[in-house]
Write a structure and sequence with these properties.
The complex is a heterodimer of chains A (about 130) and B (about 220).
Chain A (H helix, E strand, L loop, with lengths): L1 H16 L11 E3 L11 E3 L1 H5 L4 H7 L13 H5 L19 H4 L9 E2 L3 H4 L11
Chain B lengths: L1 H24 L53 H5 L13 H6 L22 E4 L7 E5 H7 L2 H4 L15 H5 L20 H4 E3 L11 H4 L5
Antiparallel strand pairs in B: 1-2, 2-3
Classes of the chains: A mainly alpha (about 130), B mainly alpha (about 220).
Amino acid sequence: MYKSALIGLLSMLAAMVLPQAAHAEYGDVVMNNYSDAAGMRPVVFPHWYHRIRFRCKVCHADLGFKFKAGGNKITMAKIIDGQFCGACHNGEISWSVENCGMCHSGISGTPTHIDGSTVQRLVAPTYKKLGN
Amino acid sequence: MKMKQFFLGVVALSVLPVVAVRAEAAQPPLKEVKAAKGHVSSANTFNRLLKKPKAKNLPPAEDGIHDPDNDNTHVLQPPKIAYDGLPTTPFGNYVDWVKALDDNLLQPRYDRFDPTIEPLVMDLDIVREVKSTVPDVVFPHKPHTQWLHCSNCHPKIFIPQRKANVMNMSGILLGQQCGVCHGKVAFPVTTQSCTKCHSKPKPADWKPPKSETSLKNPWN
């Protein structure tokens, strides 16, 4: 009997920590082109946090980030070479790359996407690309 | 015996949230309900397709995409703290980013290193007349060039020439044209935000164009 109570309590706890529907901050980008496959948590990039410190122009014009979640094919090799996140996360403008868990903080299995976007919130979500 | 009932209760309670999570994932939530008299089937409820309003500005550990088992997740800054004192809006980050800049409450750098470099701001409004009863669209270059560089839009997203670009809501909602940013990072398209873009009222004598079929309607 005590055993069933224990199981009950445990599953109650599990239910509370299970990933519920995502309510992430608007504009958070999950990057998971390679992370899962390499056994790392996916990367979560917070737009709100960076736009308080930098205008869009710094990343999207000067540093060449394309407007496409996952579209820049960022890798650790490029980062330690000073590209993309590595242009700032180098121990000079911001904390350095050895703080793996600061960037790799996502729930494993989360696909690459930008959270809370209008497309995802439509009643009939559509991901078809129409070509510009 | 009472103990047993109590334990069963605990087990049932603990299963409930799991079931709730499942129901949320499977859409639309349909329950088998007997068509007994006076019993409305759950297929016929209100808000069958309404997405629940997002909880606002949750801390990373509770937002559903950050892993709470990662120690660093708890070091990340909760947005609410950063937004303290900033003007608000009813959508997106719930922050009025344009006003925050204008009121000098934020000073994001325009250059990666040098905080003194000023952005190249251009004050040019482009009016796009809309074939619909909604107010016309005004595209203001000013708030855009405060954040972005000309090359972020020209020429890849928009040819820099008045009326040279085809725009409509279906494209915008799918993430094209204005929707490259609006609906992703810049303020989203929701009922409360329509008038941010549709900001120029129609002239008093303006009437919506009538469709061909309506003009030729034999029963009229």
